[in-house]
Amino acid sequence: MKPYKLLENVLLDIEEGIKNNITANILSEKYSYSEIHLRRVFGFAFNRPISGYIRSRTLSESLNDLLHTDKNIIDIALEYGFDYENSYSRSFKREFGISPDNLRKSRQIVKIQPPLHLFDENKLDDNAFFGPEFVIVPQFHIIGKPHQIPFAISLKTAPAVAKLFMENERRKIKKAINPDVYIGFTHKINHEEKYSEYLPSVQARNLFDIPHGLNGATFNTSMCARFRYIGQHHYYDINRDIANKMYSAILKYMNDENAKYSLLRDKIYFERVDTRQYDGNYCQMEWFTPVTEKTA
């Protein structure tokens, strides 16, 4: 099943199964994926564990019965899949900071977990695309094979040299921190000559003793915009068409007059693929670029 449809169905199933003890295991069996795979994809897409989301949605929905009816708390607990009143009360207090009984008495305002939704902008064909979110990326060093790539052929050439690097050059880097995590680093962007320096690379502990034919670079600590992509294909199959659609979605944000931040993708950006996350179903990719707050 395509990732957008899978995530859409899972969100609907969670809402329909709140009173029927819905779990990640039940969902994984329904869609014939391993539970580990489902947890990984859901967590990557929504930045939260699926089990925690199900628990939060269940407790949030239980507020309707707690505050709008006179049902006993034990009956509410059983209706929402808890075996005992105490287990419901403990989970409730962890979620909302107050016990069910005290909330009923005090009518305190609490923050709930609303249902998650997918939107048209999250759909890239039948694959899934999310962002931006804003994160701090600490300084890191990389070592890789440098390429000078003209703008006109960058979307075709970058995936090709990335594949060659992962299959060959990365083995030369003995100081790699995560040799299975690919970093495609674009920098030294020359707008007059219409080319950029592209460094297929992996993260390294330092930039000493770089193997012959390879180069090092440092990404300094920066606030970045992060976009996330999930596609039903191998990570080697991120081709020109897919990349072009991703960049079109990113440009849509860049051209949004109401956006708080400006993306500095005309200076530096990088994509990150943890190849260990590919299990024959979905590829996951992250794309980062530094940002600066817009001034009035």
What is the strand content?
Answer: 25-35%
Give the overall average pLDDT. 94
Number of domains: 2
CATH superfamily of the largest domain: Regulatory factor, effector binding domain
Q: Describe the biggest sheet?
A: 11 strands, antiparallel
Write the element-wise H/E pattern from the N-terminal end onward.
HHHHHHHEEEEHEEEEHEEE
For this structure, what is the CATH class of the largest domain? Alpha Beta
CATH-level-2 architecture of the largest domain: Alpha-Beta Barrel
The CATH topology of the largest domain is given as Multidrug-efflux Transporter 1 Regulator Bmrr, Chain A
Broad structural category: alpha+beta
Q: State the end-to-end distance.
A: 45 Å
* 3D shape: elongated
Number of strands: 11
Q: Number of DSSP helices?
A: 9
Low-confidence stretches: none
- Fraction of helical residues: 25-40%
Q: What's the Cα radius of gyration?
A: 23 Å
Describe the protein in words.
This protein has 296 residues and is an alpha+beta fold. It has 2 domains: 3-106, Arc Repressor Mutant, subunit A (Orthogonal Bundle); 121-293, Multidrug-efflux Transporter 1 Regulator Bmrr, Chain A, CATH 3.20.80. It has helices at 3-16, 24-30, 35-46, 50-68, 73-79, 85-96, 100-106, 154-167, 240-254; strands spanning 123-124, 127-137, 140-144, 147-150, 181-190, 195-204, 215-219, 222-231, 261-263, 269-274, 283-293. Strands 1, 2, 3, 4, 5, 6, 7, 8, 9, 10 and 11 form an 11-stranded antiparallel sheet that branches. Strand 5 and strand 6 (195-204) form a beta hairpin. The longest helix is centred in the first third of the chain and has 19 residues, at 50-68. It is elongated and about 70 Å long.
